[in-house]
Amino acid sequence: MTLLDYEDDNGLAAEYVLGLLTPDEVREVEERLGIDPEFRALVARWTEDLVSLTDDIPSIAPPRPLEGMVMRRLFPEAEPARRGWGWWPWLLGGVAAAALAVVALNPQLLSRSGQPDYAARIAAEDGSLVVEASFDRDSGRLELRRLSGAAPEGRDLELWLVELPEGTTISLGVLRRDEATTVVEVGPDLAPVFESNALAISEEPLGGSPTGQATGQVLALGPITDL
Amino acid sequence: MASLLEIEDLIARMALGDRRALAALYDATSAKLFGVALRVLDDRSEAEDAVQEIYVKLWHNADRYRSNGLSPMTWIITVARNHAIDRLRARRATRAAPIEEVAELADEGLTPEEAVLASSMQARIGACLGTLPADRADAIRRAYLGGEAYADLAERYGVPLNTIRTWLRRGLLKLRECLG
Prior knowledge:
Chain A: InterPro entries: Anti-sigma-K/W_factor, RskA_C. Chain A: One of its GO terms (molecular function) is sigma factor antagonist activity. Chain A is α+β, with helices and mostly antiparallel strands. Chain A has 2 domains: about 5-55, no CATH class; about 65-225, Immunoglobulin-like. Chain A contains 6 helices and 9 strands. Chain A has helices at about 10-20, 25-35, 35-50, 65-75, 90, 95-100, and strands spanning about 120-125, 130-135, 140-150, 155-165, 170-175, 180-185, 200-205, 220-225, 225. In chain A, helix 1 packs across helix 3 (about 35-50). The longest helix of chain A is centred in the N-terminal third of the chain and has 15 residues, at about 35-50. With about 180 residues, chain B is mainly alpha-helical. Chain B has 2 domains: about 1-110, RNA polymerase sigma factor, region 2, helix turn helix motif (Rna Polymerase Sigma Factor, Chain: A), CATH 1.10.1740; about 125-180, Arc Repressor Mutant, subunit A (Orthogonal Bundle). Chain B is built from 9 helices and no strands. Chain B has helices at about 5-15, 20-40, 45-60, 70-90, 110-120, 125-130, 135-145, 150-155, 165-180. In chain B, helix 1 (about 5-15) packs across helix 2, helix 2 (about 20-40) runs antiparallel to helix 3 (about 45-60) and helix 3 (about 45-60) packs across helix 4. The two termini of chain B are about 30 Å apart. At the A-B interface, helix 1, helix 2, helix 3 and helix 4 of A face helix 2, helix 3, helix 4, helix 5 and helix 7 of B.
């Protein structure tokens, strides 16, 4: 059975590339692709020509944890998950001070870019890693400035929004390795979570935690201040 | 941005199972593919899921790249566009066939010279679309980036469903004449 009018191969090839054919027509076209080099060449030309409709689409960096998630999907054996986050409440309770210093924040330091609504100083107890965060609720712009410290060799630093008191965590992305400042776009659904919670930084495989939960050591932590 | 030859080399290494090549390809191309997925899906979290699925697909199909006759960025972006359109259609539940696969098209790929030529040719599609009646140029863009099927286009442009195909094909023929 032939569903298709082969007189207009040009139109047919374009329809195939555009995705306008029905499933039956697609099957017929694909059989033909296997045996008809001229038709294959027509389809290749339409594919090359039409892809340029994406030329003016701007490149937008995806959140870095995506790379870890791709690797995790393809190679699940490579990076076993280590532990959950059940110890967050413990960490943020009285014992926290022993492991991680929670440093009071001076909001004046953070007013460089407009008027942020929330700020946090995320610091390791010994000052080996200090990151200042400021968040503008309206624009969803979270700006992070690494004042000291860096990712360990072959690892990335990942930022977490910690919801208290349960200690559930939401990844906000990976800090840039090469620059002191990282800007994260935070969706409007997450903006309310900044109220009265905390930010934390852990070290993770390159690209970020493959599991969506922290797998490495928590290096720094800071409460979020409402400005 | 890595050169086309470098991208081609990465795809070849992926076909041999080199995970570092996949990481390098991700670094070189993920911003473009995320941009394309966002444009098609218009939803950040869906685009994030799509990008993951696209790289899984590129990894699994890298060994078939050589036989498909496309320049490397065309192949990568077409895989991404097709996947995003399929997701969009699943969301809309329309009638057209899934277009997930990039067909294997030819026995030999483009040489780098041909690829360069192709990219300068490609700059012309905008100009050539400008020579078509505005509704047809718009319909071609909507099919490519919006995943619209003939029924959608017929409704949008007020063309009877039994003539929409002829209507669009006239535009496609004119576009091919202009592109050469």
